[in-house]
Design goal:
about 325 residues, alpha+beta, Endo-n-acetylneuraminidase fold, three-stranded mixed sheet, 9 helices, 11 strands, globular, binds 2-acetamido-2-deoxy-beta-D-glucopyranose
């Protein structure tokens, strides 16, 4: 059930230069591939290398987005705690699948447009354009990126139980997020930059924008329940409200633990020892982060180099600056 995270457990073990990837080097180093994924790895190591890079990008963004939250994504993708991490079909699990799938789609699309993956490239069939502008250059071909990443990422979900339906839905929401956030860039032509004619192309946004977008989806994520026909769930439907679940929504099956106390079975590490912000009333503030247990104040002297002067030639002289400061750590 655990998707592409198998690729993360040996994140340094395979080369990043796609041109250098050989199936015989890469595939045996990835434990836990499903049979379909293993076949794909043999056939398309270039694609699988991009998948690994994309999954890492997704996890890094997850950590950035949740750095001040009780649940902070820190143990996602580390081999040690692997199986225990996402057992609960929570909103956090929904975000992890969404952002990872988005990362894979993003890197795949980027690798295609850079010519690093065979049989895909820039978008070929471009529509007409408009008055004073036309499509040109290399528009990223997100459809190809989506096709290739879906093939690999979704291949993990073989159980056909409610949880795999949830994962598949969130994988798709991640791909949609990339498509939805594409940007158009243009360049002017004409006498001395007069812009009588523009050439425009589709380009990827920063991945942080996709992370923000999915974070909004996380806040509005929908609780769903499986619809059973006989012994198989056929699809997921919303538990509350009449609005249908849209493909771009993140969906979850179970309430999250509150992540205050350690409960490894449910994916909670607890917040004792976390640094918090004394003045913030928000996530990351001591009140919320420490779950009302209170915090310890540590005073310390911060030193850093300052007033640096460059002397010709060639050395730099700095003063040591000091400041008394304190930090706050959850009990
Ligand atoms: C993409 O291919 C180029 C050469 O065509 C190579 O220099 C570059 O490192 C590759 N990028 C990735 C991310 O593998
Ligand atoms: C994330 O939370 C865990 C468990 O509370 C903690 O050990 C870790 O230091 C935190 N990571 C960051 C970057 O705050
Ligand atoms: C703590 O939170 C306040 C209010 O949200 C913010 O202005 C401040 O920069 C934060 N401090 C740190 C160290 O992050």
């Amino acid at each position: 059930m655990l998707n592409v995270f198998v690729l993360l457990s040996r994140s340094r073990a395979y080369p990043t230069g796609v041109s250098a990837v050989r199936a015989s080097d890469l595939c045996p180093r990835i434990p836990g591939l499903s049979p379909a994924q293993a076949r794909m790895c043999e056939a398309r190591p270039d694609v699988v290398a991009a998948v690994g890079e994309g999954a890492r990008l997704g996890v890094a963004e997850c950590r950035r987005q949740f750095r001040n939250h009780r649940w902070n994504c820190s143990h996602i993708g580390s081999a040690r705690v692997f199986g225990h991490v996402l057992v609960v079909g929570s909103r956090e699990a929904a975000y992890v699948y969404g952002i990872t799938s988005a990362g894979v789609t993003f890197v795949m699309t980027q690798s295609c447009s850079r010519g690093n993956v065979s049989d895909c490239g820039c978008e070929r069939s471009q529509p007409q354009g408009g008055a004073g502008w036309k499509w040109g250059g290399c528009s990223v071909d997100v459809r190809q990126g989506i096709r290739l990443s879906r093939k690999f990422v979704d291949a993990r979900e073989v159980e056909r139980d409610a949880r795999s339906l949830m994962n598949l839905h969130n994988n798709q929401a991640g791909r949609k997020a990339v498509k939805h956030n594409l940007k158009t860039e243009c360049k002017c032509h004409g006498v001395s930059g007069s812009c009588t004619m523009k050439t425009c192309w589709k380009t990827l946004p920063s991945f942080g924008q996709i992370g923000d977008y999915l974070m909004r989806a996380y806040r509005k994520s929908r609780r769903v329940a499986p619809h059973w026909v006989g012994r198989r769930p056929t699809h997921l439907r919303p538990v509350k409200g009449r609005r249908k679940v849209r493909p771009r929504d993140l969906v979850y099956l179970e309430d999250s633990p509150n992540y205050c106390e350690p409960d490894p079975e449910r994916g909670s590490l607890g917040t004792a020892g976390r640094e918090c912000n004394r003045t913030s009333p928000d996530v990351g503030g001591c009140e919320v982060l420490c779950c009302g247990r209170g915090y310890n104040t540590h005073q310390y002297v911060r030193t850093w180099q300052c007033n640096c002067k460059f002397h010709w030639c060639c050395y730099v002289n700095c003063d040591a600056c000091k400041e008394r400061t304190e930090n706050y750590v959850c009990k």
